Amino acid sequence: AGEFIDAAQFYSGLLDPDLRGLGYEDQAAYRLGMCSLQRVEPDKLNGTVIQQGLDQFRAYLVDFPQGLHRTEAEAARAELSEFLGGYHLMLADYYRRIDNPPGERFHLELAAGRAPLGHRELAGELRGTQAAAEAEDRLKALDAAAPAAP
To answer: What value does the mean pLDDT take over residues 106-129?
Structure first.
């Protein structure tokens, strides 16, 4: 992972406003996002790294709407969205283990692509993912298991 941190610093340097016009911007912005994607370890999800990659690809797609790597960036962003959903499912599992139903529900709602407590942008990244479908199923199971209100 260290080599990707070093590479990210290099690519960030190429995005310095003083270097604009040298022709590196498109490639550097894409590669910066790829450095974050490469740092994601599927068996040890890190929400900060995942969110950083999503932010970098979102910026790439906005700054370079006809970019050289648009298709690859969209695919990488979708992959990171799945990882982010998995991260929130993992957090929901943790809250279930420590018997914290509100925490479990909160992270399941995020993973499902819902927007609790002002997390609209995050929820938008997760809608339509496989993790969102799993989270919806788990929310339905929670609702079915909930005792009826008196």
So the answer is: 79
Query: Which residues lie below 8 Å from residue 68, measured CB to CB, with a gap of 6+?
Result: 26, 27, 30
- Give the pair of three-digit tokens for residue 70: 């648009």
Range 16-43 average pLDDT: 85
Q: Is pLDDT of 143 > 60?
A: yes
The closest of 107, 149, 111 to 127, measured between CA atoms, is 111
Q: What is the 3-state secondary structure (H, E, C) of the chain?
A: CHHHHHHHHHHHHHCCHHHCCCCCHHHHHHHHHHHHHHHCECCECCHHHHHHHHHHHHHHHHHCCCCCCHHHHHHHHHHHHHHHHHHHHHHHHHHHHCCCHHHHHHHHHHHCCCCHHHCHHHHHHHCCCHHHHHHHHHHHHHHHHCCCCC
Which burial class, exposed, middle or buried, applies to 20 when counting CB atoms under 10 A from its CB (0-12, 13-18, 19+)? Answer: exposed
Residues 33-54: tens digit of each pLDDT: 999 999 999 889 999 999 999 9
This prediction has a pTM of 0.85
